[in-house]
Amino acid sequence: MLLKLGIENLHFHDLRHEAVSRLFELGSLDMMEIASISGHKSLSMLKRYTHLRAQRLVSKLEAGRHKGRQHVLGHLVPYPALVEPVEDAVRVRVLDFDDLVVSAVTSAGALELAQDRLLRRILQHMRESTPIPAPDQYLIPVDEAAVVWVDPMANCTPSAPTTDEAEAQAAA
To answer: Which residues constitute the domain of residue 128?
Structure first.
């Protein structure tokens, strides 16, 4: 096969070097387990066969610094919401949170308000160490055409007044 592929100067032990290095890079095995797999009798011999990629080592070192941020951002994902017109307003109900319902005069205002409340609710769950519902796990039947995805991290336009604010402005 080496002749057919035109590979020169490759030996079985080169493959062993590569395999041992990749086992270390997996990060799920310790040195003793890798030594058992590779058949090395001493850790000093195992070290001679290990050639780790510098970029992977740097990535691992960097990952520890950003672990908390990655954990938080992993929870700030879009959730499905039901958009419904009600009287003189638009109501948005985030389906995976039973009590996350907001209303505003416009659909854009209602979606922005839902986005803000969703972000706050997720962070509240994190602060209180309570389970955060997974998105798209609701069990109620809904009209799929009326479902939108509310992203707690999306950019927003300036806030539209909620129905309460609109009523207060009209009364003033």
So the answer is: 76-166
Contact 92, 150 (CB under 8 A): yes
Let me know if 152 is exposed, middle or buried by CB neighbors in 10 A (0-12, 13-18, 19+): buried
Question: Is 67 inside any structural domain?
Answer: no
Top mean pLDDT of 14-18, 40-44, 58-62, 91-95 is at 91-95
Q: How crowded is residue 58: how many other Cβ atoms within 10 Å of its Cβ? A: 10
The answer, yes or no, to whether residue 11 has pLDDT greater than 60, is yes
Q: Does residue 85 sit in the same domain as residue 134?
A: yes
Alpha carbon distance 123, 109 (integer Å): 21
Return mean pLDDT, the chain.
79
Mean pLDDT of the 119-140 span: 88
**Contact criterion met (CB below 8 Å) for 22 and 16:** no
Torsion angle, alpha carbons of 109, 114, 115, 120, to 10: 130
CA distance 101 to 92: 6
pTM (two decimals): 0.53
